[in-house]
Amino acid sequence: MQIAGIASPMIRTTGAALVIGRDLLLDVISTRREGLGVRDLFIAATVSQANLQGPAAAPEVQLAYAASDEVIPESLRRPISISAIARSLDWPFETVRRHVGGLQRSGVLKILPDGVVIDVEHARGPSRRELMLAADALLTRALRRLRDAGWLGQVEWPKVQNQAPLRPFRLSTFLIEDYLLAIAAEGSRLVGGELDFLILIQLARANTAAIDAGRTAAEIATHLIPDDARRPVSVVEVARALVLPRETARRRLLHLEKTGRVARSEAGYIVPGAVIAETAAALAPANDQLLRRLVRACAQYGLLPD
Predict the structure, then answer these.
(1) pLDDT (tens digit per residue) in 157-193
(2) In this structure, are residues 85 and 46 in contact, taking their beta carbons and an 8 Å threshold?
(3) Residue 26 CA to chain centroid, in angstroms?
(4) What are phi and psi of 142, to 5 degrees?
(5) Across all residues in the chain, what is the average pLDDT?
(6) Dmax of the chain from CA atoms?
(7) pTM of the model
(8) Are residues 193 and 251 in contact, defined by beta-carbon separation less than 8 angstroms?
(9) Is 223 in a helix, a strand, or coil?
């Protein structure tokens, strides 16, 4: 995402934070696939966030399991109903019900009489641990990029609660999920749906990936690439990146084209620079606020690098 033509220090750091947040969001989605589509990931993240409210939200409980191979037990998790998941994501009930059923069959979720919970056997599995460690590494990278961009100076630090010697890597996933759901909801309000928002930012990143390699987040944010220098991306590439059915990606790209947010040529799709600049400017205040919440929580639990 770029905020073009403005190079003041505040705008540069805000623009850099947008790029860093975009990369964190897309990289976590890519890393956490587990063979699941992006809708399944959002439902699983919503269930996880709801489960870890109530008794499980106490800092002492979070920290007790944060660096352990054990997970917070089902007895402390707060179930969430399918209708509450649908309301939270603003998705049709039947869509959510169908995906929850598939996630139960794959062992990710468990449907109890009073709602849906993460299956603790799935949560404590070795593959899940590796995915959490990968997410923790992505979070550390994002925090270092924010530091290098000068953005961390905008945050007032809370007192560190975690004095344990082991890194609370499980908390990283919880905090990332909170950011992922919140920023996607903000993007949804701008473009008309989480899926359209994710396709838009994935496409924009792919359009300039070769040019952006080696550039800092601030340089990416403030130096807009001309539209004719952007690499068109195919429907298949977008579908593969977000683990979407090809037909779903094609249909959503056609919708984005009709609304003027993407442009199509024989070679594929691009997001025009004007659309990127407009979207970035609208999203920047919310992104700053959500990243500030994320970073303060990282500081509180001893997750800041260096």
Answers:
(1) 666 655 555 778 888 888 999 999 999 999 999 998 8
(2) yes
(3) 6
(4) -65, -40
(5) 88
(6) 57
(7) 0.88
(8) no
(9) coil
